[in-house]
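Raw record, unedited: HTH gntR-type domain-containing protein
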Amino acid sequence: MAKPLYRQIAETFEQKIYSGELDLEDVLPTEQALQDLYKVSRVTIRKALEQLENLGLVERIKGSGTYVKYNSAKHDAIQLKGFDENITSLGRIAGTKVIHFQLEQALPAIANQLKIEIGAPIFSIIRIRTIDDEPEILEQSYMPLSLFPDLSVKVMQSSKYYYVENQKGYQISHSKQDVKPVLATNIVAKHLNIDTNHPVLRLRSVSELKTGERFEYSIQYLRGFQYRFEYIARRGLG
Protein backbone atom coordinates (compact mmCIF):
# COMPACT_ATOMS: atom_id res chain seq x y z
CA MET A 1 0.00 0.00 0.00
CA ALA A 2 1.44 3.37 -1.06
CA LYS A 3 2.18 5.97 1.60
CA PRO A 4 -0.06 9.04 1.69
CA LEU A 5 1.35 11.94 -0.35
CA TYR A 6 1.85 14.15 2.70
CA ARG A 7 4.05 11.48 4.31
CA GLN A 8 6.10 11.07 1.13
CA ILE A 9 6.68 14.83 1.01
CA ALA A 10 7.52 14.98 4.72
CA GLU A 11 10.02 12.13 4.38
CA THR A 12 11.68 13.89 1.43
CA PHE A 13 12.35 16.89 3.66
CA GLU A 14 13.39 14.68 6.58
CA GLN A 15 16.14 13.25 4.38
CA LYS A 16 17.24 16.71 3.25
CA ILE A 17 17.47 17.87 6.86
CA TYR A 18 19.22 14.76 8.20
CA SER A 19 21.75 14.81 5.36
CA GLY A 20 22.63 18.45 5.99
CA GLU A 21 21.29 19.63 2.63
CA LEU A 22 18.94 21.78 4.68
CA ASP A 23 20.63 23.20 7.75
CA LEU A 24 19.60 24.97 10.94
CA GLU A 25 17.53 28.13 10.27
CA ASP A 26 17.26 27.45 6.53
CA VAL A 27 13.84 28.46 5.24
CA LEU A 28 11.62 26.00 3.39
CA PRO A 29 9.74 27.02 0.22
CA THR A 30 6.36 28.66 0.75
CA GLU A 31 3.22 26.55 0.90
CA GLN A 32 2.23 27.80 -2.55
CA ALA A 33 5.66 26.92 -3.97
CA LEU A 34 5.41 23.42 -2.48
CA GLN A 35 1.91 22.99 -3.91
CA ASP A 36 3.22 23.88 -7.35
CA LEU A 37 6.28 21.68 -7.00
CA TYR A 38 4.45 18.52 -5.87
CA LYS A 39 1.13 19.18 -7.66
CA VAL A 40 -0.89 18.64 -4.48
CA SER A 41 -3.43 20.55 -2.42
CA ARG A 42 -2.68 23.06 0.32
CA VAL A 43 -4.15 20.58 2.84
CA THR A 44 -1.56 17.95 1.82
CA ILE A 45 1.32 20.42 2.18
CA ARG A 46 0.11 21.59 5.57
CA LYS A 47 -0.16 17.99 6.81
CA ALA A 48 3.41 17.34 5.62
CA LEU A 49 4.71 20.45 7.40
CA GLU A 50 2.74 19.51 10.51
CA GLN A 51 4.43 16.10 10.53
CA LEU A 52 7.87 17.73 10.26
CA GLU A 53 6.94 20.10 13.07
CA ASN A 54 5.77 17.23 15.29
CA LEU A 55 9.14 15.54 14.72
CA GLY A 56 10.90 18.68 15.93
CA LEU A 57 12.56 19.23 12.55
CA VAL A 58 10.99 22.55 11.59
CA GLU A 59 9.33 25.57 13.16
CA ARG A 60 6.52 27.46 11.48
CA ILE A 61 6.43 31.18 12.25
CA LYS A 62 3.22 32.94 11.25
CA GLY A 63 3.80 35.62 8.66
CA SER A 64 7.45 34.64 8.22
CA GLY A 65 7.78 31.07 6.98
CA THR A 66 8.90 27.56 7.92
CA TYR A 67 12.43 27.21 9.26
CA VAL A 68 14.66 24.21 9.91
CA LYS A 69 14.88 23.68 13.64
CA TYR A 70 16.89 20.46 13.68
CA ASN A 71 20.58 20.92 14.43
CA SER A 72 22.79 18.10 13.13
CA ALA A 73 25.71 17.08 15.32
CA LYS A 74 29.07 18.64 14.46
CA HIS A 75 32.52 17.16 14.45
CA ASP A 76 34.66 20.11 15.51
CA ALA A 77 38.06 19.54 13.92
CA ILE A 78 39.60 22.43 15.86
CA GLN A 79 38.47 21.68 19.40
CA LEU A 80 39.08 18.02 20.24
CA LYS A 81 35.90 16.62 21.78
CA GLY A 82 34.59 13.11 22.08
CA PHE A 83 31.53 11.81 20.24
CA ASP A 84 29.47 11.57 23.44
CA GLU A 85 30.32 15.17 24.38
CA ASN A 86 29.32 16.47 20.94
CA ILE A 87 26.01 14.63 20.85
CA THR A 88 24.82 15.12 24.43
CA SER A 89 25.63 18.85 24.28
CA LEU A 90 22.87 19.09 21.63
CA GLY A 91 20.34 17.27 23.76
CA ARG A 92 20.57 14.18 21.55
CA ILE A 93 21.13 10.59 22.68
CA ALA A 94 24.56 9.10 21.96
CA GLY A 95 24.92 5.34 21.89
CA THR A 96 27.72 2.81 21.43
CA LYS A 97 27.67 -0.85 20.47
CA VAL A 98 30.93 -2.82 20.67
CA ILE A 99 30.90 -5.52 17.99
CA HIS A 100 34.55 -6.59 18.23
CA PHE A 101 37.02 -6.50 21.13
CA GLN A 102 40.21 -8.53 20.95
CA LEU A 103 43.82 -8.50 22.10
CA GLU A 104 46.13 -8.84 19.10
CA GLN A 105 49.75 -8.37 18.04
CA ALA A 106 50.41 -5.12 16.20
CA LEU A 107 50.94 -5.56 12.50
CA PRO A 108 53.64 -3.35 10.90
CA ALA A 109 51.19 -0.70 9.62
CA ILE A 110 49.47 -0.36 13.00
CA ALA A 111 52.76 -0.43 14.93
CA ASN A 112 54.03 2.39 12.73
CA GLN A 113 50.98 4.54 13.45
CA LEU A 114 51.24 3.96 17.21
CA LYS A 115 55.05 4.19 17.28
CA ILE A 116 55.40 0.84 19.05
CA GLU A 117 57.25 -2.36 18.23
CA ILE A 118 55.87 -4.74 15.64
CA GLY A 119 54.09 -7.55 17.46
CA ALA A 120 53.45 -5.49 20.60
CA PRO A 121 50.09 -6.32 22.21
CA ILE A 122 47.25 -4.00 21.23
CA PHE A 123 43.50 -3.93 21.63
CA SER A 124 41.53 -4.06 18.39
CA ILE A 125 38.05 -2.63 18.86
CA ILE A 126 35.17 -2.07 16.46
CA ARG A 127 32.27 0.08 17.59
CA ILE A 128 29.07 1.42 16.06
CA ARG A 129 28.24 4.93 17.27
CA THR A 130 24.59 5.91 17.16
CA ILE A 131 22.59 9.13 17.41
CA ASP A 132 19.06 8.65 18.74
CA ASP A 133 19.45 4.89 18.07
CA GLU A 134 20.40 5.42 14.40
CA PRO A 135 23.86 4.13 13.31
CA GLU A 136 26.06 7.04 12.25
CA ILE A 137 29.72 5.97 12.62
CA LEU A 138 31.58 2.67 12.25
CA GLU A 139 34.85 2.93 14.15
CA GLN A 140 37.90 0.64 14.16
CA SER A 141 40.33 1.54 16.97
CA TYR A 142 43.74 0.23 18.04
CA MET A 143 45.04 1.00 21.56
CA PRO A 144 48.27 -0.25 23.21
CA LEU A 145 47.97 -2.74 26.05
CA SER A 146 50.92 -1.05 27.76
CA LEU A 147 48.86 2.11 28.34
CA PHE A 148 45.51 0.43 29.01
CA PRO A 149 45.97 -2.97 30.72
CA ASP A 150 42.46 -2.77 32.21
CA LEU A 151 40.64 -1.79 29.01
CA SER A 152 37.35 -3.68 28.65
CA VAL A 153 34.20 -3.92 26.56
CA LYS A 154 32.35 -2.07 29.32
CA VAL A 155 34.78 0.86 29.06
CA MET A 156 34.41 1.03 25.28
CA GLN A 157 30.62 1.07 25.55
CA SER A 158 30.88 4.53 27.06
CA SER A 159 33.13 7.55 26.55
CA LYS A 160 36.68 6.61 25.56
CA TYR A 161 38.02 10.09 26.35
CA TYR A 162 36.43 10.02 29.82
CA TYR A 163 38.18 6.73 30.51
CA VAL A 164 41.56 8.00 29.26
CA GLU A 165 41.44 11.28 31.18
CA ASN A 166 39.36 10.59 34.27
CA GLN A 167 39.97 6.92 35.00
CA LYS A 168 43.55 6.58 33.78
CA GLY A 169 44.61 10.11 34.64
CA TYR A 170 46.31 10.76 31.28
CA GLN A 171 46.34 14.19 29.65
CA ILE A 172 45.32 14.20 26.00
CA SER A 173 47.33 16.55 23.81
CA HIS A 174 45.97 16.39 20.27
CA SER A 175 44.71 14.26 17.41
CA LYS A 176 46.01 14.34 13.83
CA GLN A 177 43.16 13.67 11.43
CA ASP A 178 42.68 13.23 7.72
CA VAL A 179 39.34 12.96 5.95
CA LYS A 180 38.59 11.39 2.59
CA PRO A 181 35.30 10.59 0.79
CA VAL A 182 35.06 6.89 -0.08
CA LEU A 183 32.40 4.40 -1.16
CA ALA A 184 30.96 2.09 1.49
CA THR A 185 32.11 -1.52 1.30
CA ASN A 186 29.65 -4.34 1.98
CA ILE A 187 30.73 -4.49 5.64
CA VAL A 188 30.53 -0.72 6.21
CA ALA A 189 27.17 -0.55 4.45
CA LYS A 190 25.77 -3.40 6.55
CA HIS A 191 26.68 -1.79 9.87
CA LEU A 192 25.60 1.73 8.89
CA ASN A 193 22.33 0.60 7.32
CA ILE A 194 23.11 2.06 3.90
CA ASP A 195 23.60 0.68 0.40
CA THR A 196 26.94 -0.70 -0.75
CA ASN A 197 28.91 2.01 -2.61
CA HIS A 198 26.98 4.76 -0.85
CA PRO A 199 29.35 7.75 -0.33
CA VAL A 200 30.72 8.01 3.21
CA LEU A 201 33.53 9.94 4.87
CA ARG A 202 36.58 8.06 6.12
CA LEU A 203 38.27 9.76 9.04
CA ARG A 204 41.68 8.45 10.11
CA SER A 205 43.21 9.81 13.30
CA VAL A 206 46.24 9.33 15.52
CA SER A 207 45.83 10.64 19.06
CA GLU A 208 48.64 11.58 21.44
CA LEU A 209 49.06 12.20 25.13
CA LYS A 210 50.98 15.21 26.42
CA THR A 211 53.87 12.81 27.10
CA GLY A 212 54.14 12.31 23.34
CA GLU A 213 52.89 8.71 23.52
CA ARG A 214 50.34 7.71 20.94
CA PHE A 215 47.36 6.18 22.69
CA GLU A 216 45.08 5.40 19.74
CA TYR A 217 44.95 4.93 15.99
CA SER A 218 41.44 4.84 14.58
CA ILE A 219 39.59 4.65 11.29
CA GLN A 220 36.02 5.88 11.25
CA TYR A 221 33.39 5.69 8.53
CA LEU A 222 30.75 8.40 8.86
CA ARG A 223 27.36 8.03 7.24
CA GLY A 224 26.84 11.79 7.33
CA PHE A 225 23.08 11.77 7.85
CA GLN A 226 23.18 13.35 11.31
CA TYR A 227 26.82 14.30 11.71
CA ARG A 228 28.82 16.95 9.88
CA PHE A 229 32.23 18.57 10.04
CA GLU A 230 32.95 22.12 11.14
CA TYR A 231 36.22 23.92 10.43
CA ILE A 232 37.36 27.42 11.29
CA ALA A 233 39.84 28.87 8.80
CA ARG A 234 41.95 31.76 10.08
CA ARG A 235 43.98 34.18 7.95
CA GLY A 236 47.54 34.87 9.07
CA LEU A 237 49.08 34.21 12.45
CA GLY A 238 47.51 37.02 14.44
